[in-house]
């Protein structure tokens, strides 16, 4: 095609005119939500089973269900769209770690109790259900998946170290953090170069997640200086003092090499971490097992679906999300996308009871399922992220840089008080 | 030799151009030029939409408290007061400046040397030019993943070399200085080629006679480089310095991707001692991790001020040299 200067100019003018026209006309008629028969559903890659979503689009014919996979930083895109009040999705995924920060703005979403959600409550894990609800009981998040934390370990390495190898025995012998560290001491003695855990945060985060409180309570009081946090801090330092923590940076070749060589034979991770192991160290297939974690039960991750207030047909949307997330489809979600179900009924289904060759033929649901049901109901504050970070930063300074622990704790508390004051937390 | 004329590189506009004798077109009203204004309008319209309005909004936002979704609450100057006393913000400024310095100085020097080599008659010139420019158009995310491997402690390339030389391993991504060096070397690698291409363009404006004269005077290649090339290239070097300052002070993706796995569970924390937390990274942490949008906006204006100060310093430098 020949491009003349005049032609280019003309094209430029046409584009400008179109943009200007579009701008003025759109200015008075940008729809706040979907239009026509459309019902948009926002989720992220791997957030739902694509097959189940595809089935939903053909099953629900009263509306045109438009699933959209949003790439990049999901939360900021959702916030921008909702703040802009334009093209807001009817149904949207909410990530578990962001859930607490959506709850103060529950009025932006439909209270699912008004659509009859309470009838379904029995089918879902209680602690998960409560995570999607505000303190005054409004339900905005409907449970997708969960991340029960368990103890993944290398049976071959444990055997060499003289530690128990059967999941039940491992769970029994390493039932508390103290006993787990004692096993770590034996591991360190028998296997040169091996470490129990990758870093201090692997202890700290899991101990915090096992509790029912975090850094801020329901009355907006800072509680990060209380016993439950001090205990997590002390346990992390104890592991560090005993030399059980590696200085490996996770995600680098060092981490994977250590996993493969059996120098990091113990991983306290959420159910989805099994997928990471399979992906990163495929050669260790058959050597891993899963057991209950030491010191209690914890959750890490897992998401929700919500209906925004711009949705024009909430009843229809509710029907769609409850179908997408019923026990049968949660089982499919587990098979297709490794989403661990929030519906205990799924744990009994055949597709979830397949022996896993990566775990030496173990039926891992026998460990993860009961763990999922014992997770405590915890309060998550929208200010937890801001007020937990200084403590984790300082813990890193102690374990990685050898900072004096007392000074680090004091510094963390000083930072927290300042941030709390700024955020209106007392 | 030391006072070589700078005229070939910089054209100073003389007063003669707009002299009395110049033919002027008849003055036309702005409306008379509507076609031309229309032709350049797309940029300005887009800039208004996606540049100026958000900038204005962020200023408005910095006087409020907002979680990104609910109601905005007027906060007066409190966000700025908090910013001034925020040790972590000051820490992020020093991180940024240190990383910028470690990255930029070697980068400009290597780029100049590379440009001189490219400028001399070698075969496959365009292949080299392409190769030098390639890092600049490669995704930062991909580069950072590779650099994460290069700087890993036990199996990293850098430590393999150190050990080959009989030196100790360094836990690059686990120590404050190691983190800064890793980020800086990533930036150096990415931007050296870009600056080399700009230098090359500058070099090609230096007349060959000057080099011939230097050769006749008995100057070697090193002497020629420092006595002829560098002085004549000063304006171009200052230009690249300005560009590197503006980009370097806003570094974000490099530390974010490089340190996301080490970063104390927040991808914006910057590793031990927050050593890799640049100003923009801190801005992101406050805004998107903590949902403190008002404070985030105040930080953004703090960054604006700092970049502004450095731009003024640079501009003054250029002005003085040109006198």
TrEMBL record, chain A:
Listed InterPro entries: Bact_solute-bd_prot1, SBP, TAT_signal
Region forming the signal peptide: 1-19
Domain of life: Bacteria
Record keywords, A-Z: Signal
Protein's recorded name: Lactose-binding protein
Organism: Streptomyces jeddahensis
From TrEMBL, chain B:
Subcellular location: Cell membrane
Pfam families: BPD_transp_1 (PF00528)
Signal peptide (UniProt feature, chain positions): none
GO cellular component: plasma membrane
Broad class of the protein's primary localization: membrane
GO biological process: transmembrane transport
Positions of the ABC transmembrane type-1 domain: 93-314
Keywords attached to this entry: Cell membrane, Membrane, Transmembrane, Transmembrane helix, Transport
Membrane-spanning intervals of the chain: 36-63, 97-118, 130-157, 177-201, 293-313
InterPro entries named in the record: ABC_transporter_permease (IPR051393), MetI-like (IPR000515), MetI-like_sf (IPR035906)
Domain of life: Bacteria
Lipid bilayer topology: Multi-pass membrane protein
Protein family per UniProt: Belongs to the binding-protein-dependent transport system permease family.
Protein name: Lactose transport system permease protein LacF
Organism: Streptomyces jeddahensis
